[in-house]
Description:
478 residues, 7-stranded mixed sheet
Amino acid sequence: MDNRRRNGGEDLNLWNIVSLQFDKAAARLDVPKGLLEQIKACNAVYYVQFPVRIGDRYELFQGWRAEHSQHRKPTKGGIRYSEMVTQEEVMALAALMTYKCAIVDVPFGGSKGGVCFNPKKYTREQVEKITRRYTAELVHKNFIGPGINVPAPDLGTGEQEMAWIADTYEALTSGQVDSLACVTGKPVTQGGIRGRREATGRGVQYGIREAFKIKADMKKFGLTGGLEGKRVAIQGFGNVGYHVAKFLSEEDGCRVIAIGDVSGGVWNADGLNVAQLAEYRDKTGGLKGFPGVKELSGPRDVLEIECDILVPAALENQIALDNVDRVKTKMIAEAANGPTTLGADEKLIDRGVMVIPDIYLNAGGVTVSYFEWTKNLSHIRYGRMEKRLDEIFRDRLVSTIEQVTGKPVPDRQRRELLKGADEVDLVNSGLEGTMQNAYREIREALDKDPRLEDLRTAAFAVAIGKVARSYMELGVFP
Length: 478
Ligand code: NAD
């Protein structure tokens, strides 16, 4: 039982938080009670302890893999390496995956895994051993496989861990032609897909852009004038936080003024150089000591910097009752899972802060993971068959325009017009379309039923509605 609490006794158990968020939306839906209970429950959890030889001693590790819902298969969700992982956290994150997949129409049930350790305290070889042993446990208990359960990266894991998982799975189940589809988020050279590494950050960018397209909403929250020049503060400078910072600053003209990580953070009201910060982090392992900026000493300090858009991209329960009154922003874009507690969420809504919820906003990762999975099953890179043909058609079109107008198309425009779509172009367009449709669907649900009150409740309502429909159409196996 996860009994984590912060000063004032606020319940920080993510399973309880997600359950209450679910209940709030469910109360406004016309879905049979028993079915709601089934959708909310976590169907299966595998708990394992396993020994790994670390140097000259044996160390015992605890791991979990939760399958929240199998209404669609395989189930899907990341693997987290952190000293704070608990069974209930993994169950809650698996539940969020079910709702997330439903919102972006990715045909998977929700799952999540975790191993309780801090990978930064171990060598690369030791992390490899732990990863391979955990994977072997999942294989033996049928908690991994292209049609069963497909992990991906999460906090503390990345492409390297996914490659080890794929290799271990292949070694233990050899001869399966589809084995690479047992895990997503792999390096491109090992069956991964271009655009997956940055997909969650890209999805966050696309989601924020969608919100900014609804002028009436932006006016209501005091965010007029588009994204250009908006001040952004980000907690977390790992995979997700870095890409959000990069895309919002380089492509949308936002000013990233503060970035935090586990060691503290950096702040500069004139804007930070994201590329230089990333280089510094890669060299030193963190942001601490970066020259020419103001330092933030605590890992949650960045959340209190005055800004237009605050992006929590680290951990759950970061914006809570003990700091929400000092949060000075107009929009919270939840890139992390569960970053806002229930109490803080209510206060933010009362104060007129716009919250774009995690179950929508960080769904870019699983969306592109779905593309990677289908790529692995089809055994061919997206665009390989049609790229050249596409270029030939474009060439003909440009020639026709030149003939009809009697004028040559300038070289730069010609090059742009002639370029056929690469894998990464297809991935990003698929992701953008997905994030656009999902935002519209959630926003329309809120318009249709104002009792849903906020975007999070509307997103839960959309998700529950889709999962319920799936159960009702398929029936329940006796
Ligand atoms: P990561 O391990 O790459 O980076 C985590 C970052 O958070 C690091 O900068 C780290 O310093 C910081 N951090 C860790 N503990 C902290 C603390 N106590 N206080 C402040 N900062 C802290 O992880 P990631 O993949 O970027 O994931 C970040 C969040 O996004 C998580 O909530 C994860 O569940 C969520 N998410 C990730 C993906 C994905 O594709 N990686 C997809 C969806 C959601």
